[in-house]
Write a structure and sequence with these properties.
The protein is an all-alpha fold. It has one domain. It has two helices and no strands. The longest helix has about 40 residues.
């Protein structure tokens, strides 16, 4: 029952959101996307640093 009410409230808020509310939601989604991308790029950068160090040790 509570979940149904929550769904109704969420739908109402979505349907009656102001331009400012939509902008905030859009900005929040963009921030989440950029944080995920940033995390992925940091992991790739760490991997490349480790690979460079490994291959540098292999060279005579």
């Amino acid at each position: 029952m509570a979940q149904t009410v929550d769904n109704w409230v969420a739908r109402y808020r979505k349907d009656h959101a102001t331009g400012q509310d939509r902008k905030k939601a859009s900005e929040s989604a963009e921030i989440a996307k950029l944080r995920a991308e940033n995390r992925e790029l940091r992991q790739e950068n760490e991997f490349l640093k480790k690979a460079a160090a490994f291959f540098a040790k292999e060279r005579p």
